[in-house]
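Dear U.,

For the methods section draft, I wanted the exact inputs and outputs in one place so we can describe them consistently. I've listed the two proteins in the order they'll appear in the manuscript figures. Please don't edit the C-alpha cell lines directly; just add comments below if something needs changing.

First protein:
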Amino acid sequence: MMATDRTIRPPAFAGAFYPASPNRLQKDLETYLSQATPPEIANVRALVAPHAGYVYSGGVAAFAYKLLGEQPALPKRIYLLGPAHRVPFHGVAMTNFRAFKTPLGDHPLDTEKIQQLVASSKVCNTLSAPHTPEHCLEVHIPFIQTVCPSVPVVPMLFGQVDPVIVGKVLNKTLEPGDLIIVSSDLSHFHENEKAHTLDRQFLDALLAGDLAGVAHGEACGNAPAIALMTVAQQQGWEPHLLDYRTSGDVTGEMRQVVGYAAVAYAGKD
C-alpha cells in the first residue's frame, strides 16, 4: 500500500461540492467559464467569489475567474482568504502543507511566504488542523488550477481575529503582481426576496468601502472581506460588482436560499 504524503492536503469535498472525476470537473469548469460574461476591467488586484457547491455558485464564481483569466499576465502569487466553518481557533490559520490536492492534481502553496507571515505577524499561526475539514478554500483551487496553473497560493483561514489587523499585515507583505481572493457566501436560508434585500445591503456597503456596514452584514466571509477592504483603502483599489445570484435564482427553489456574489477590485493604472 502506497504511503500518504502528509505534506499534501487531500481533498475533503470532491464528490460533494464539486465532481470527483477529473474529466467531469474540467468539463464543468469549462462550461461555467464559457458562460460567464464579466465586464472588461483592467489591473485586477483582488476578487471576491463564493464557495458553495458548484451547482449553486459555480456560475457566479466563474465571473471572477473568467475576468482573472482575461488579464494580460498571471498573478505572481495568490492570497486565498476564507472563514473557518468547522474548527474554532484564534487568529489566522496558516498551514504547513506544501500543496492542495484536487482531482485535477496537486496545486503548490507558497511555503516560503507562509513561513514569513507566521514569523513576522502575531495573528498568523501554523495551524493545519482547521484546514483539513474546511471547504471554503478548497472549492476555489480547481478554478485556480484552470485559470492560473502553477501560481502558488497562500491559504489564510480566518478564526477569531481582528480583520483590520490582518488587512494591515497583508498590505505590508503584498508585492507587485500579487492577487487577493476572498471566499465568501452571502445571506443564508432566507426567502429569496428577503435574501436579495439583505445581500444588496451588504454589497452596497462593500462597494462603498463601509467597513461597519460589511461587519454587520450577513456574509460568512465578512472578516476576510474587511481585511481585503482595509488593503484596498490603502492601495486605492476600486470594487466592481461582476455578478449576483441566489441559489433560488439558479434552482428555482425560493424558500431557503443562499446568496452569492462575484466582485473585482481594480488597481490604479
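Second protein (the one for the lower panel):
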Amino acid sequence: MPLARHVRALASCLALFALLVLAIPVYHVLHPASPAGAASLLASERALDSQRNLSKRGVRPVEATAAPAAQLPAAGAADAAPAALPTQTLPATPAAAAVSPSPSPTLAPPTATSTATSTATSTATSTVTPVPRPTLPFTYTVKAGDTLWDLAILFDINVDSIVWANERLEEDMDTLMVGQPILIPPVTGALHTVAPGDALSSISAFYKVKAEAITGYAANDLKASDTLQVGRVLVIPGGTKPALARWVSTAKGEMAVNIPASKGRFNWPASGLITQYFSRSHLAIDVASKAGSAVLAAADGVVIVSGEKTGGFGLTVIIDHGGGYSTLYSHFESIGVAVGDHVTQGQALGEMGCTGTCTGPHVHFAIYYEGGAVNPINYLP
C-alpha cells in the first residue's frame, strides 16, 4: 500500500507539470506580447547596461547617455512599468572641456576658469577709455635708451618737430641726455613764441602754412581778429621751421649752428684715419696718416693765411671759398702755397706733420660758415 500511494503522488506531480507546460503556449496565444513594449524594454536594458559598464567599455561619458522617455516609442498599459526605466539615468558626468595647446612647455594648459577670467578681463580692458592725446605742448624727461627717432614714434610726430621745439637740440641733436627735460609738440609741426611785432600773417608765412591752420587749431583759442599776446606759445600744425644760421660761443671759438648740410660741397683733405670728430670742444676733424703725406685743398679758392698760427695750430693754411665758406688746415710739416694763391680742389697745399700742439702727424681740418665752425662731416662726400 505505501508503494501504491507514492506512485499515485508521482503521477499527480507529472500531470501537474504537463498541465503547466501546456498552459504557457496557451497563455501566449490568448495574450500576445506587445512589440512596442518589447522594444521599450530592450532599449531600457541596453541603456542601463551602457551606463553601468562605462569604465569597462572605455567610453567617455557624455551629457545624456539615454534618450528621454518622450522620445521612445509609446508602450501599452501592460508595459508602463518597464517603459519608465530609461528615465532613471545615472548622474551625468560633465563633458571634458576642449583644451588648447599650452603656450609654453613649462605652463599648464589653460582651464575653463582661467579662460573665462581671461575673457572677462579682455572684455573689461576693451571698455577702458583711452587716454586722450595732448593738445598743448608738454614736457618729457629723457630716459636711458631714448633716441629722437624713438620719441618721434612714441608721440606720433616727426623728429624735426621735437628738434624745432628745443633750442639746444636745434644747435646739436647729439646733446640729448638722460634726465634732460625736453618740450614735445602735440602734433607734427612747430611751436612759435609770439614776439613784439608778430602778426598772424607773418607767422603763417614764416612757417609756410595758412593762417587758418593756426586759428583752426582749437587749443590755440585764437581768432583772426585777436591781438597776439607777446610771450604766448602757439602750435603751428604742419609748420616747417627754416634753418636759420646762429652762432654759439664755445671754449674753442664760435660755432655756427642750424646750417643746412651740403654733402659733397667739399672734398676730403687727406687719406687716413679719423682720430677725432667735431664737437664743442674740438671744432674740426683730425685725419691722421704718415708724416709727409699730401694735404689737399677741399675746394677751389684763394689762400688767405699761410704760415704759423697761434693757439697750438702750428703751420696752417686757410682758404676762402666764397659764399661765406672757408677751410682751415693745420699741423703741416711744410707748406707749398702762399697768401693770394688761387688753388683748385685736390691741389696739394703741403706735407702732413705735427707742428704746434699735437700727438702725431695729422691734419686738423675745419670748415667755417660766416666765421662760425660747422661739422665737416655734413659737407664731405
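Candidate sentences for the figure legend, describing the second protein: The radius of gyration is 50 Å. The longest helix spans residues 2-30.

Thanks,
Y.
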